[in-house]
Amino acid sequence: MSSVKKANPTVIGAFVLVALALVAFAVMVLGGAALFTPKQKVVSFFEGSVKGLTVGSPVNFRGVKVGSVDRIVLQFAAGSLEPRIPVYMTLLPNSVKLIGAEEDGSDIPFDAYIQKGLKAKLSIDSLVTGQLVVDLDFRPDVPTVFHGSRETSYPEIPSMKSDFDVLKDQLAQLPLRQLAEDVKGMVESFQVLAKGTGGTLGIVGEELKATAITTRQTLEEAQRTIKTLNSTLQSFERTSEEARKTLAASGPELEQTLRSARAAMARVETTMQGADAAVAQVSEMTAPGAPIRAELEQSLRDLSASAESLRQFADTVERQPNAVIFGKD
Predict the structure, then answer these.
(1) 117-121, 128-132, 138-142, 247-251: which has the minimum mean pLDDT?
(2) Which of 14, 67, 133, 304 could disulfide-link 91, Cβ–Cβ 3.0 to 4.6 Å?
């Protein structure tokens, strides 16, 4: 029987070291310097719609980007099936600087920002695409409510309603139907009162009736306006979705067009710089006191004297044609 050849431990060890080196190199290339950047993982729970918010969406503090969205999850409460959406984010404390200190914002405990009233809300970044961003700001006037601090190890930034959600809530809270019914009942009461008094209310009754009718018409118009607003908002969402798809499809062509336009502008700028240099050179040559200008003026005087001599010679030949042979008399 042939003996089985044993594996060489040296070869196996070398193979393992090479594999580890390749893995380390891949991590360095793919991750880059971001691996060594201090980061702060946080989470916020939103109760409304997050349509337009995607992974990679920026996290801003008063317009300054301080992080990005990592993950969006949908959760339901076990008992009430109440939905909520946790949004996991990565903040970069190195982008925050302290005034009057050498340290950056990474040395500040995160709880200090929460105690200051830090809140997160969704805002529209682009009306064309409908893309949302997470806006952070200090809002101590808004109640601080924590949702999932027990379910995750990440610090939680309390959320607040977006401006759009606040507007919808205000419109929904208006008792328009009840107001219309009250105005209708008030008008009917005035009509009964006017009939019962035999028309003795006179001008006052007519004015009250006209006021009530105008109020009712105003409320009906407000109802129509709210319906139109809801239709407009739905159309806006559909238009934003179509615009986002169109931009995604035509993105490469737009990028190529922008590169061509930048190249053309660079060539035009180079040409204009050359023209400016030529004009400056001509201005320098023709400036008062320049040597070339003095030579040009002397040449012009010589040409003028030569022209005068030729004119006199022509006059002499015209008067005495034989002057070319015998000279002047």
Answers:
(1) 247-251
(2) 67
